[in-house]
Amino acid sequence: MGFNHLHCQKAAINTLNAGVEEAMNWLLSHMDDPDIDAPISSGAQAAEAPIDQSKIDTLITFGFHEELARKALKASGGDIEKATDWIFNNPNASTSSDMDTTSSNNTTPTTTDAGLPDGGGKYRLFGIVSHIGTSTQCGHYVAHILKDGRWVIFNDNKVGASINPPKDMGYLYFFERINS
């Protein structure tokens, strides 16, 4: 497209290789930067702007620890969606020291759990939410519900028989307990 190699490298680095369109948009919006022709140095990333605390707080509300949220936002250039993807694509990024393990080794029931029946452990699938599309950012969600012994698909305002629901491709599964 006529861009020089250094500029293309900077665009790829600053968009975390998100794609050609993102890199080109970044490059077009940074062509007048005074350091656009400066060589890429390993310390260039250290001079980034501080991470927005509201974005960290948003990731914390999703259930991620603060340190992991910071790491993901730094790796994704401050984009919350890319940071969330980064967290899921880098499961080893959160070490065991980042996680709260105080209750994970507790195998004895607490007094609040002691009165709850354990049950037989038998459940029946009665609903699936599945996704149609290439990614969670592109596509459509539909629901498959077991009603009166038949699977039914709910797609916005359309309802129809679901002959072969995608039980192995569900995004979310709904079960009910079978009492024996």
From TrEMBL:
Extract one GO molecular function annotation from the record: zinc ion binding
Question: Which SUPFAM superfamilies does the UniProt record give?
Answer: Cysteine proteinases (SSF54001), UBA-like (SSF46934)
Coiled-coil annotation reads none
> What keywords are assigned to this protein?
Hydrolase, Metal-binding, Protease, Repeat, Thiol protease, Ubl conjugation pathway, Zinc, Zinc-finger
Reading the lineage from the top rank, the first entry is: Eukaryota
**Region of interest called Disordered, as start-end residue ranges on this chain:** 91-116
Q: What is this protein called?
A: Ubiquitin carboxyl-terminal hydrolase 14
Q: Where would I find the USP domain in this sequence? A: 1-178
One of the protein's GO biological processes? protein deubiquitination
Family, as annotated:
Belongs to the peptidase C19 family.
What organism does this protein naturally occur in? Answer: Rubroshorea leprosula
SMART domains in alphabetical order: UBA
Every UBA domain range = 50-90
Q: What is its EC number?
A: 3.4.19.12
- PANTHER family according to UniProt: UBIQUITIN-ASSOCIATED DOMAIN-CONTAINING PROTEIN 1 (PTHR46738:SF1)
| Swiss-Prot/TrEMBL catalytic activity | Thiol-dependent hydrolysis of ester, thioester, amide, peptide and isopeptide bonds formed by the C-terminal Gly of ubiquitin (a 76-residue protein attached to proteins as an intracellular targeting signal)
**Amino acid composition bias (Low complexity), ranges on this chain:** 92-113
GO terms for cellular component: ubiquitin ligase complex
Gene3D superfamilies for this protein? Cysteine proteinases, DNA helicase RuvA subunit, C-terminal domain
